[in-house]
Amino acid sequence: MGETSPTATIVIVEDEPAIADALAARLRAEGFAVEVAHDGLRGVELCARMEPDLVVLDVMLPGIDGHEVCRRVQRDRPVPVLMLTALDAETDLLVGLGVGADDYMTKPFSQREFVARVRALLRRVQRAADGSATRAITAGPLTIDPARREIRLDGRLVHLTPTEFDLVHRLAQRPGIVFTREQLLEEVWGYADGTAGERTVDSHVAAVRR
Ligand code: CA
Questions:
Q1: Which of these, 28, 29, 37, lies nearest to 9 by C-alpha position?
Q2: Ligand 1 centroid – CA 162 distance (Å)
Q3: Cα-to-centroid distance, 185 and ligand 1 (Å)
């Protein structure tokens, strides 16, 4: 506690009221300001209005699904997205599609795990914003500009999600060094836990390679 701003605003987009209420109550108890939308379109509107620091987004939503909500929300302004899925296989599929979420949790999960992920994601974004490493890096055809959070390939701007950016940046800072999945999880995602997390690394690395 206390590492992230206690006034951080979080938007939850989840159509199951019991889950939405439980997650909102827990985040409020942790000191966050929380707003809830129960369908995709309202979620997009809410994000445009609130300009939240983080979005918790269920994949299966009435109206427009989480995939499309993520795209629309990210189009307006970059914001970290924690996506909730019903199946592990769905997570792999979504990362493969390059949906642009920064982290994924498969239901059911514990409230404690949920809060840990939210805090890790907020910390990561804050750390990136603090610009601890702002020197541009050139690695072969890649130019990485941490101050602007831009990556260019042969001079052409490459679209990456915040997580993908952090992953490439971290790898490029120490070329030739082999990282374990655990190291990447800890350094990029800000936590190190079981196999679900390691799968997240695999999926994101696959997305970046594409
Ligand atoms: Ca749902």
A1: 28
A2: 25
A3: 27
